[in-house]
Amino acid sequence: MALTGLDIFKLLPKSNCKKCGMPTCLAFAMQLAQKRAELSSCPCVSEEAKQALEAAAAPPVRLIKFGAGAGQVQIGQETVLFRHEEKFHNPSVLAATVSDGLSDDELAKRIAAVNALQFERVGAKIGATAVAVTNESGSAEKFAAVAAKVADNVKLAMVLCSDSPEAVSAALAKTAQFVPLIASANETNADQMAALAKANKCPLVAKASTLDALADLTEKIKAIGVEDIVINLDCQTLREQLYGLTRIRVLALKKAFRSLGYPTMSVVATGTADKQVAAATSLVCKFAGIVVIETVEPSAFLPLLTTIMNIYSDPQKPVQVEPKLYSIGDTNANSPVLFTTNFSLTYYTVESDVEASRVPAHILVVDTEGTSVLTAYSGDKLNEKAVADAIKKFNVEDIVSHRKLILPGYVAVMSGKLEEATGWEVMVGPRESSMIPKYLQEVWSNGGN
What is the pTM assigned to this prediction? Predict the structure, then answer.
């Protein structure tokens, strides 16, 4: 748990020397507690106090990175139980499996399917972020060969899934430079797996069926010299796993229980694609840092990726698009001009419906700090001045020959003031975006221009 200003003050020299730039040690302690100062600013702090403060300042859930280059991912370092308390920082890693039991043709198709699990949603690129190579063949040589082939053809972070130290050792000989996550160490192979993780500088998964066993296992692995650990609570039912993941998070955050202060991994490898995505979504919502899923059906991945995107967006910072004039289709000087806000979901909904109309049109996006139309209007971020300024800033008058502006129907009340501020004729558009195609085809095309 984070130290208070008074806790920190007790560890400081209390000399009030002002060398840190603060008038007193207490003032400096308060700034440290609020993360507005660095401990290094105090030249008089003892080594013992420095170590105590650094240990207390360590995040309750350790930050773990694996993968290399653009494919590197990171999990952990979370500080809250609920997103509204602050935000979640590192999105859950979603890994698709590739078995070493596949034939060459099947392996090639599976790799292609994994690479195809990339999508675009509200302007953001989302997709599978890891690939989990599973040792279903039981052969160390085949496991190593498939891991090498996957590493060469899939530019995602890799998880090596085998309980065999021999198989993991063979795979690491060909893939260690990609910094894979080793999954996993258990009570019987922990010494060998930890030695491999330490020698190859790779993070290691600790797997056990109870919290007590997990805590003992992480301490054993740490004693061998491996600090980067991911924990896998191996439960029989989804209910047990969800309960266990929640307890792990509570113990790490509220009780500062360092033995379980690590990100978690869960595996969903049975059932239909629909059942897998339902279970995986539940696990993401209950703090799973990595979810390994067997299906590679795009229809299963997209809703799960959307869930991750929604949960790990900053609730205090809406997803936004760049304010500017967007042209949809083969526009010209006579094309209609609609305006909306720069809330990402609002813009892409409007864009989609404008495209569906098959009427080339301009969309003027007004900067409302990422809020929706009604929210922006009620907060006075969407007003006649903001729209008039956007028209001028993006040279809309030089791009279209007419002076007609289509207003979102929900804010029809601002049409009068908007006409006065811009000198444009304001046309009240539909209240619902889904009605834009009909509006453009029937109202605009039959006299709007």
Answer: 0.77
